[in-house]
Amino acid sequence: MKILLSTWKPWTWANRNISLQDRVDMAKKARAGICMKGSNSTGLYGPNTWNTFKLYPYAKGKSNDDLELVAKQNGLPVQLWCFPYLRYPAGSARAINDAIARWNPTDVFLDVELYYAKDYPYNTGAFLRSLGQVDVRFWLQSYRRPDYHPEIIWNKWLTYKDPNGKHIIHGVAPQAYPMGSQKFADDFARMVVAYAKILGTANRRDIPWFPTLPTFSERGWEPTLPAMVGGVDYLTKELGNRLVGLNFWQQDWLFKDENAGIRSYIGTLASDVIQPPVVIPQNKYIHDHLHPWAVTKGYDGPNPDRS
Question: Cα 115 from chain centroid?
Fold first, then answer.
C-alpha cells in the first residue's frame, strides 16, 4: 500500500522552523511520498516565481519547486492535489496540466468540493474534456458521503472518458474526515456503502481507493490513535486489494510531539515496510517442520525434540 503525506504552504510564517529536509526525512521514515498542492482555480500554486518568496525571508527556498527538488534528491515521489474551479473549466484544467508538466507526478488528486464544484455542476463535462488525454492517475478527492452532496454530478465524474476511451478518473480518494467523532470504523462503513451506490450506478464497482485521512485539528477536534487504527483496519479488511493507498492531510500536524503515536503508526502502513522476523524456538521448528520432512525422506527414528 502506498502512503502519502500532504503538505500545504510550507513557506508560511507558522512553518518557518520546519525545513524542507525535515518534511522529507519524516516521509522517508514513513516510507511515504509527498503530496503538494499544484494548482488553485486557474493558476499554478507555489512555484518559485511567486513574489511571496521574494518578499518574505522566512519563505525563501520553500517553494513547491524547492520541495520537489529536495524530495526527489532523496528518492521520494512527489504527487499533487489540485483545486479545480468549475466556474472556469478550461482555465482550471489548463492550470492542472501546467502543474503536471512542471512537477511530473504520477498521481493527481482532484479536490472537488464546496461552491467551487457545487455551484457550477453543468461545467463538469467541459472541465473533464479540457483535461485532454490522461497521462497520470486522476483521483476524485471529494466528500466522504456522496449521498449528502447531490449537487455534484458523481456519475459524470466517474464515467467520463478521454479521447482514447480511458476513464479520466482512475479511482476515488474520499476525504474521510469523521469530524467530531472517534468512531472511524463506523463512519467509514457508512462511507463505503454510500460510495458503493454511486460506483454501482457508474458500473465501476472495482475502482481503486486512495482515501484521504485526517491528521489535523479543527474546532477542538483531532483524531486519536485508537480511532485511526480502527478506521484503517476496517478499510483494509473491507476494501481488500481495492485499497491501494492512504493519503494523510496534513503533514504539519504530525510534527507536534503529542502526535508522535500517529506519526509512528503511519510508518508501519507502507507495503514495503520490512517486518522483523518471527523467531521460532528450535524444538518447535524440529517438531513441526524438520522431523516431518525427515520422515518423508525415509527417517524412522524418534523425534529428537521429545523428552
Answer: 23
Q: What is the pTM of this model?
A: 0.87
d(CA 133, CA 165): 9
For residue 297, pLDDT over 90 is answered with: no
HSE-up of 105 (CA within 13 Å, CB side)? 29
Is the predicted pLDDT of residue 155 greater than 70, yes or no? yes
Q: How many CB atoms lie within 10 A of CB 222?
A: 18
- State the Cα angle at 235 between 206 and 27, rounded to 5°: 105
pLDDT of 272 > 70? The answer is: no
Q: How far apart are CA 129 and CA 95, in angstroms?
A: 14
Q: Distance (Å, rounded) from C-alpha 205 to C-alpha 223?
A: 29
Angle at 272 between CA 285 and CA 34, to 5 degrees: 160
Q: Is 195 exposed, middle or buried (0-12, 13-18, 19+ CB in 10 A)?
A: buried
Q: What is the pLDDT of residue 282?
A: 58
Give me the domains of the chain, ranges plus CATH numbers: 2-275 (3.20.20.80), 278-307 (no CATH)
Q: Strand 245-249 to strand 212-214: parallel, antiparallel, or no bridges (unpaired)?
A: parallel
The single residue listed with the C-alpha cell 485508537 is: 226
Q: How far, CA to CA in Å, does 56 sit from each of 11, 17, 50, 52, 53? A: 9, 14, 11, 6, 6
For residue 96, what pLDDT is reported?
A: 98
CA angle 166, 175, 72 (to 5 degrees): 70
Answer yes or no: are the C-beta atoms of 178 and 187 closer than 8 Å. Answer: yes
Percent of the chain residues topping a pLDDT of 70 = 91
Which cell numbers in the block locate residue 9? 504552504
